Amino acid sequence: MAPKTLNFITGNANKLAEVQAILTSTPVQLKSQALDVVEIQGTIEEISRDKARRAVDEVKGPVLVEDTCLCFDAFDELPGPYVKWFLKALGVQQFHKLLAGFEDKSAQAGKIVEARGPTSFGWDACFEYEGQTYAEMPKAEKNQISHRGKALAKLVEWLSKEA
Ligand SMILES: O=c1[nH]c(=O)c2ncn([C@@H]3O[C@H](COP(=O)(O)OP(=O)(O)OP(=O)(O)O)[C@@H](O)[C@H]3O)c2[nH]1
Ligand SMILES: [Mg+2]
After folding, report:
1. Phi then psi dihedrals of residue 107, to 5 deg
2. Residue-wise pLDDT tens digits, 28-85
3. What fold, for 70-138?
4. Would you say 121 is a known binding-site residue?
5. Taking the model in full, what pTM does it have?
6. For residue 129, with 0-12 CB atoms within 10 Å meaning exposed, 13-18 middle and 19 or more buried, which class applies?
7. Which residue has its alpha carbon closest to ligand 1 atom 10?
8. Where do the domains of the chain lie?
9. Helix, coil or strand: residue 107
10. Proximal ligand: closest to the CA of 81
């Protein structure tokens, strides 16, 4: 596949660092722009499509945007795309208490636990996968198994078929 440059539009520096690390060994190169794009309410697909369109209007070129959901099984998939606001209101140390009244602590695809590890990125410290929270894992390990790693692997595969 020929090298391909996309404008990655995000207001989140942690996200940008992970996306760059994941794509570093692929033909996809990024130009990043620290823009906080307006996000509508809706399903993840509706929000992401709308976010991408708004980003294209700003950049007037090929863009990559990301919208991350954290879905609790006990909440019928909420907070989903609205997790950012729950996290902002509660902080990572209190976040697990949302599920205090529920036996089912599962979230896609892991478990919500009391915060462990560095708290520098979103809900990483509360999200446990196979005994470790994302925050306790080395970055390379998280990037191999994470939602972000999987989504970007699909993107690279799709782009290589397009070329
Ligand atoms: O611990 C985490 N590990 C992750 O891997 C991760 N990915 C996203 N998030 C958080 O989940 C919300 C998503 O909202 P979100 O997708 O709209 O992102 P954002 O608004 O921060 O950036 P962007 O929309 O400008 O790209 C925000 O609170 C992000 O901080 C993560 N937290
Ligand atoms: Mg956002």
Report:
1. -140, 155
2. 999 999 998 999 999 999 999 999 999 999 999 999 999 999 999 999 999 999 999 9
3. Maf protein (3.90.950)
4. yes
5. 0.95
6. middle
7. 122
8. 4-67+140-162, 70-138
9. strand
10. 1
Q: Is 143 annotated as a binding residue?
A: no
- Of all protein residues, the one whose alpha carbon is nearest to atom 23 of ligand 1 is 10
How many A from CA of 140 to the centre of ligand 2?
Answer: 23
Query: CB under 6 Å to ligand 1: residues?
Result: 10-12, 15, 36, 39, 66-68, 83-84, 87, 121-124, 134, 146, 148
Q: Which CATH architecture does the domain made up of 4-67+140-162 adopt?
A: Alpha-Beta Complex (3.90)
Q: What is the CA angle 17-19-22, rounded to 5? A: 105
Question: Given this chain, do its domains 4-67+140-162 and 70-138 carry the same CATH topology?
Answer: yes
